[in-house]
């Protein structure tokens, strides 16, 4: 049983290391958010799962499972909100997309206003067929 726990702990440590490396090495906010959310969540979940093999007991199992569920529910939402704030803040707050970004899939920077919400129109229309790549890097 301890071998399974050690394998999970080593695997979790590897994923946490990859997440940290991705945050340091990747060029822009969306890529960094992807690395930290995906690899970091999996790494911490594996480390928490390894605890149940090192310290068998219902209390540790319940806490580990609660931690894993909490991470799986909150990490994607937090990454989405931070990425959205960075994207819409853009050059004004010093955040730019990577210069090799092929397509900017959120070409409009319209703020959801009470007028748009009240008259039933969509404040965030879907992307058109025009490619609006490298919108942030031109500034």
From TrEMBL:
<feature type="transmembrane region" description="Helical">
    <location>
        <begin position="67"/>
        <end position="87"/>
    </location>
</feature>
<dbReference type="Pfam" id="PF03334">
    <property type="entry name" value="PhaG_MnhG_YufB"/>
</dbReference>
<keyword id="KW-0812">Transmembrane</keyword>
<keyword id="KW-0472">Membrane</keyword>
<protein>
    <submittedName>
        <fullName>Cation:proton antiporter</fullName>
    </submittedName>
</protein>
<feature type="transmembrane region" description="Helical">
    <location>
        <begin position="39"/>
        <end position="61"/>
    </location>
</feature>
<feature type="compositionally biased region" description="Polar residues">
    <location>
        <begin position="127"/>
        <end position="139"/>
    </location>
</feature>
<keyword id="KW-1133">Transmembrane helix</keyword>
<dbReference type="GO" id="GO:0015385">
    <property type="term" value="F:sodium:proton antiporter activity"/>
</dbReference>
<dbReference type="InterPro" id="IPR005133">
    <property type="entry name" value="PhaG_MnhG_YufB"/>
</dbReference>
<feature type="transmembrane region" description="Helical">
    <location>
        <begin position="6"/>
        <end position="27"/>
    </location>
</feature>
<feature type="region of interest" description="Disordered">
    <location>
        <begin position="115"/>
        <end position="139"/>
    </location>
</feature>
């Amino acid at each position: 049983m301890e071998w399974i726990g050690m394998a999970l702990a080593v695997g979790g440590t590897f994923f946490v290391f990859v997440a940290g490396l991705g945050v340091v090495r990747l060029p822009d906010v969306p890529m960094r958010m992807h690395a930290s959310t995906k690899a970091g969540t999996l790494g911490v979940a594996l480390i928490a799962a390894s605890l149940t093999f090192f310290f068998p007991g219902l209390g540790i199992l319940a806490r580990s499972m609660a931690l894993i569920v909490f991470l799986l529910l909150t990490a994607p939402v937090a990454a989405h909100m931070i990425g959205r704030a960075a994207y819409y803040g853009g050059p004004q707050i010093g955040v730019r997309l990577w210069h090799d970004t092929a397509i900017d899939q959120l070409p409009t920077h319209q703020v959801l206003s009470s007028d748009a919400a009240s008259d039933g129109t969509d404040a965030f229309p879907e992307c058109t067929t025009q490619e609006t790549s490298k919108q942030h890097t031109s500034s």
